[in-house]
Amino acid sequence: MGVSLVPVSRVDDLLPGKMKPVELGGRQLLLAHVDGRYFAFVRECPHEAADLQMGELDGYKVRCVNHGYCFDLTTGECQLPKGGPQLTTLPVEVRGEEICIRLEW
Ligand code: FES
Description:
Elements: E1 3-10, E2 19-24, E3 27-34, E4 37-42, E5 56-58, E6 61-63, E7 70-72, E8 78-80, E9 89-90, E10 92-95, E11 98-104
Antiparallel strand pairs: 1-11, 2-3, 3-4, 4-9, 5-6, 6-7, 7-8, 10-11
Bound molecules: FE2/S2 (inorganic) cluster.
């Protein structure tokens, strides 16, 4: 199995409590910084494809502004409504000053 760490942002460019759009291989992602931890997830809401950058970051959750669906960034699980569509998340690692997406194949 191979592993690649792909840098997508500098740590300094993502303040605590904020989200930032990045691109990886043509896919639109968001990075979030919460309590010194970083998360990456698909920018498009899995419900009806609204832009989650317009959503609210609330602790380890992001809430879509379109219909209020709420996703746990640590798992991608839809918490509101329970059993709703899963948010696709990607593993993140920090290497030096860079936030990297970890890709395995
Ligand atoms: S499009 Fe995000 S909750 Fe409906």
